[in-house]
Amino acid sequence: MQKQQQPIPVELDEKAAEGIYSNFVLTAHTASEFILDFARMLPGTKKAKVFARIVMTPQSAKSLHTVLSHTIEKYERSFGKIVLPPQKGAKGDDHSIGFQTGLPVEGDTDKEKKG
After folding, report:
1. Phi and psi of 55, rounded to 5°?
2. Are the beta carbons of 76 and 58 closer than 8 angstroms?
3. How does DSSP classify residue 39?
């Protein structure tokens, strides 16, 4: 017989409830932690400003990945497929900003990126 998990009370104060907008993220890792720097970059600027740094264990990062994947799937079932814009440098676009993955985006027909 499996024990039912008790809900964990979560406190959300007024300042945290406002949220922080981010359109750019930098990631790094060591053997024992993942670092996510959430930043904002405005069009026409050449640098991004970090507004929040999250440090987590590899296990927590993997859990975050799983939860985000499930949440995105639910979102797309409700609102339609999310289409990523071309990344900086892709197809001549030099002005895109945002979360950069380094992965090919939908619509790229090149099997291999040339660097």
Report:
1. -115, 130
2. no
3. E
C-beta separation of 86 from 101 below 8 A = no
User: Which candidate, 81, 96, 100, 79, places its Cα nearest to that of 26?
Assistant: 100
* 85: Cα separation from own chain's centroid: 14
Tell me: the pLDDT tens digits for 60-114?
999 999 999 999 999 999 999 999 887 665 444 444 555 554 433 344 434 333 3
- This prediction has a pTM of 0.68
| CA-based nearest residue to 57, from 79, 72, 73, 35 | 35
- 5 pLDDT band, cuts 50/70/90, is confident
